[in-house]
Amino acid sequence: MKKIILFFCICLLALPAAYGEEGKRKIIGTIYRDAPAINSLIPEDAVIEVLAEGFDWSEGPVWLKESNRLLFNDIPPNTTYQWSEVDGLQIYLRPAGYAIGDNPPGRELGSNGLFIHPQSGALVFCDHGNRCVAMLNTENWTKSVIVDKFEGKRLNSPNDIVISNAGHYYFTDPPYGLTGPDYPGKEIDFSGVYHLSPGGEMRLVTKELYRPNGIGLSPDEKTLYVANSGKKRIWMAFDVADDGSTSNGRIFHDATQFDKYGVSGNCDGLAVDSEGNVWATGPGGVMVFTPEGRHLGSIDTGTHVSNCTFGGADGMELYITSDMYLCRVRVNVKGSGF
């Protein structure tokens, strides 16, 4: 039987929105336009708005279409927040990850990547602290474990996830949630990318990446994108068959030597728009790529970025988690699935 992890929901006003002079939202960073095609994706007068700030390390944003709000995690303080234009910032779930016992299993106890299941509408967590992928039941505020083992061994600390319309789960499993590479409870000696079928079959997509991180699907769900953190800053692409299986892994873009502008950073979370362009956090901010992997420009917040997602009533707002900030940029294209 799948184990159940108890959680508590606390919906209290947590942090004020970030406003500058005359009640206007704070504007930060720079939008770099390396190719003319970027102007068709990001308006020339677009700015990077700060919606909230003061976080330790914001991550895992996901948009809830039915309620017009954003959920995201602040991993170190083990908290999931919600933000909306009407209600501002509130605590949604605390603790969001590991909650039981005096001997925590790692250094990052909160949850990371979030995703809304396309069939059930349930919120799915990459639960760093509990080393599993879990689903939230909002009737009694419990999490049920979807998967926590591969071939009988405990996962490291699931990081990011995407779920296809047919119910195939794809997720990354680096050891960032553990205390270190020599953590005595580490049972898998590689950082894997996994595919869990709707029938419960667990398959390994690849174990060749040093630190697989962000993950996403093309609009037609024929291509799986995976970011790799570490010295080799690359994004991989894999073909996806009708049964959800993957093959033909190849480099989508290599940014290992990229230092053109902005704060140096690793390849982290990503989002895909309805035209197949990939918006991937990496060195210098959110790097915007064509479906062929050509870099068009970047959204540089001035600090390290962790993840991004599309949202808003029309799906044409890019929400960015960037270290201590939650940011937003109005764009000209809808996110995939809107």
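The above is record 1. Record 2 follows with the same two-line structure.
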Amino acid sequence: MYEKERRAVAAMGRQLLASGLTAGTWGNISLKISDDAILITPSGLGYDQQQPQDIVLLNSEGEMLEGKRLPSSEKALHIAIYKACPQARAVIHTHGVYSGAFAAAHKKIPALTEDLAQVIGGAVDCAVYAPPGTEELAEAAVRALGERRAVLLSNHGAAVWGASLEQAFMAAQLIEKAAHIAILAELLGGGKKLTAAQTKAMHIFYEEHYSKRQEGEE
């Protein structure tokens, strides 16, 4: 069941690993198929080894429907984001270096770049610390996420969502780039943040028009 979608999730895992946004078996990917069907990467299996049959099928409450492997230990995080963000169809949890630096410092990634404002909707907030794989982490992440497409997980990594796997991966790349730029800008005396009005206008344009063009809908 869902062979095409399973292949897409497995392929995204290899892309995530190649991008440097994670290492080893850390991080995870999910794809929402329907209101009660979610595909998620397995726990503890390297992305370079994952095959379509290794991708686990869950229902909307995280119960396993199909699969030979255990689902990602962060399944609660994915499910919480889907419940909080009805537009989300894909969630990616990353362990990037620069976004990870902000997560380790418990600091938000500021909205210094237009692409971050457009896609994410503003600065990327950092959730309060909670142990990995717990309901507490999922709840903290959703509180800090708000209406944006990305959140930092203290001392851990980041989570992003999109209307497709491709959109979610782009969001992951953008927050990593934004974190890198913010660190470099600090060496130059500090970056100049976009105003709330500028950020809001660009995000509205992205949501209403540009995102649709990316998906071939406009």
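The CA atoms of residues 139 and 216 lie 34 Å apart.
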